[in-house]
Amino acid sequence: MPGTPPEDLRAKRRLALVGGSLGNLVEWYDWFVYASFAIYFADSFFPGDNPTTQLMNTAGIFAVGFLMRPVGGWVLGRAADRHGRKSALTLTVTMMSVAALLIALAPTYGQAGYFGAVVLLLARLLQGMSIGGEYAASATYLVEASARNRRGLGSSFQYVSMTCGQILGLGILITMQHTLTTAQLESWGWRIPFVFGAIFALVVFWLRRRLEETDAFTEETGGATGHDDSSRGTLKVLWQHRRQAGLVMALTLGGTVAYYTYTTYLTKYLVGSAGMAKNTATLVSFTALTVFAVLQPLAGMLSDRIGRRPLLITFAVGCTVGTYPIMTALGSASSYWGALGLSLLALVMITGYTSINAAVKAELFPTRVRALGVALPYAIANALFGGTAEYVALWFKDSGHETMFFWYVSGCALVSLIAYVLMPDTRNAALSRAETEADADGARGAAAAPVEAVR
């Protein structure tokens, strides 16, 4: 921002990073805690003698939540492009708080029959809509609020906060596993983390109210861009950038399937397929995700130096080739350290995608449709592939062909690999008018340099 003292600018960027990240943490805590505690509340809503069937039912509701993500991406992405990133971020965390409270208060099958499952479904639909908008608003905000040469680092905090949200949920689960009996957890203990989620959101609501709007959005709404204000955040404008939207879907496909495989599904896989104790499997996930969160900024900084494509390609090659042997080995892991080592190998591999995908997507679109351009195609890809990953895995397991899921993950990564190889590197993209003018000044200076040398 011209005229802003460097100290004030750094303070503004730190507040933006904290506000965007902490809000994102709470959003994804509420989202992932459902998956983490499903092993304890599955039979509260779906009676029966088959644990796999019960988990498939809860996983199905988890997947249904993803179906609302395109709706949330469209509605809230449009709001972020028309009314600002800050207002959209405030709205998403409010919606997530309400959804968490609904789950905490949902009656069980024994209390109200399948009405409890209906409440659970409605809450997940609301969460899905909120997350669909949260991803776009936070990704756009973090990237636009970062210095141009640190966008990879700034965007990496999206998955830092996402992962810390899951770590917080797992930490609460581990604590409760050591303080409550299994019967208590299955009876009422599973409600506690959802109450926490609703309370956490109130704190984040206050924090996000203090955030400042990004310079890129302020420029866009300042009346000097020559764009019709009524066109901002519309599907008509997004259609003009349909190639970029298709690219977002392709580059998301492999990453989202791999991410949900090695995070939300991992604990269930270690318990159901490897025969590991629930406490041990949870501890494996907790430790692996802690290391994973630390890796994100390091990879983000690396992408600011060497570009985005090398990291994306490394991820896709590793996932295409490595998924089958890693998952097969995890299926027979009998110790904490063996499972942890394999889990870390997988998470290091997918860091090439998670650390920078927000920056890559935001760098593909102009300001007036950036949030919607990031949100809608990403949400569609997640609804079709990310949200269904756990359900597909359990379906293959239930049908007796569990290893087919490993090939499914590899195939999705292969599709993304093709997109990564063909796409341009977005590291040097200009996201605001000021950056575009700086590029033009640099080009003029470079063109004049040979002339000055001759003189």
> What is the gyration radius calculated from CA atoms?
22 Å
Helix/strand structural class:
mainly alpha
**First-residue to last-residue Cα separation:** 36 Å
Low-confidence stretches: none
Tell me about the largest β-sheet. Answer: none
Order of helices and strands: HHHHHHHHHHHHHHHHHHHHH
Helix count, per DSSP? 21
DSSP helix fraction:
over 70%
The percentage of residues in β strands lies in: under 5%
- Using the alpha-carbon principal axes, give the shape: globular
Query: Could you give the count of β-strands?
Result: 0
Mean pLDDT: 85
Summarize the structure.
The chain is mainly α. It has helices at 6-45, 51-67, 69-83, 85-105, 109-112, 115-144, 151-179, 182-187, 192-208, 215-220, 235-240, 242-262, 266-272, 278-306, 309-331, 336-354, 357-362, 370-386, 389-398, 403-422, 433-454. The protein contains 21 helices and no strands.
Structure in words:
- With 455 residues, the protein is an all-alpha fold.
- Helices cover 80% and strands 0% of the residues.
- Helix 1 (6-45) packs across helix 2 (51-67), helix 1 packs parallel to helix 7 (151-179) and helix 3 runs antiparallel to helix 4.
- The chain is globular.
- 55% of the residues are buried.
